[in-house]
C-alpha cells in the first residue's frame, strides 16, 4: 500500500513538472521569439521574475563596468533546483546599470543607476533556428541598448558572445556560480 502511494506521488510530481515545462516553452516562443527566431526583450522583469544574482564589475576601465543583475522566470528556478538543467523556454536577462556613488548614513555607498544594456539568452532544446547566427549551443543570444530596446544589436553568437562565454561552457554556457537562487531556498 505504502509503495503504491509513494509511486503515485512521484508520478503526480513528475507530471506537474512536465506540465510546467510545457507552459514555459509555449509562453516563451509565443511572446519573446518570432517565427524567424528574432528575440525581443521581455519587459519589466524586475517586477515579476526571479532575481538569480548580482555581479559588480567595479573597474571603470573594464568593458562591463557596472552592476549586473540576472533574472529568469520563477518556473525556471523551480525546475533547475530539481533537475540542475535549464528547461526549454528558460529566458535569462542580464541587466547592466551604471554605478552611482555617494555618502549615505551607512558610509560611502555605490548603487545601481540607469540601465545601459540588457543581455538575453533563450533556452532552445529543439534546435529551432538552424543557420540563424543568433541561435547556437542550445540558446538564442541577444543584446539591447537602453536607447533603443527594440533592436537586437548583437552581431550573432560567434561574433559577439562566444569568446567571453567559453569559460562557462561546462555549465551550459551560464556562469552558474553567481546564481545562488538556482541552488536552494533562503531560510
Ligand atoms: C566581455 C565578455 C562578454 C561578452 C562579450 C558577453 N558576455 Fe555574457 N557574460 C559574461 C560574463 C563574465 C557573465 C557573468 C559575469 C558578469 O556578468 O560579469 C555573463 C553573463 C551573461 C548572462 C547572465 C547568465 C549567464 O550566462 O551567466 C547573459 C544572459 C549573457 N551573459 C548573455 C550574453 C549574450 C547574449 C552575449 C552576446 C550578445 C554576451 N553575453 C556577451 C561575459 C560576456
From TrEMBL:
<dbReference type="InterPro" id="IPR038142">
    <property type="entry name" value="Cytochrome_P460_sp"/>
</dbReference>
<protein>
    <submittedName>
        <fullName>Cytochrome P460 family protein</fullName>
    </submittedName>
</protein>
<dbReference type="InterPro" id="IPR032033">
    <property type="entry name" value="Cytochrome_P460"/>
</dbReference>
<keyword id="KW-0732">Signal</keyword>
<dbReference type="Pfam" id="PF16694">
    <property type="entry name" value="Cytochrome_P460"/>
</dbReference>
<feature type="domain" description="Cytochrome P460">
    <location>
        <begin position="47"/>
        <end position="175"/>
    </location>
</feature>
<feature type="signal peptide">
    <location>
        <begin position="1"/>
        <end position="21"/>
    </location>
</feature>
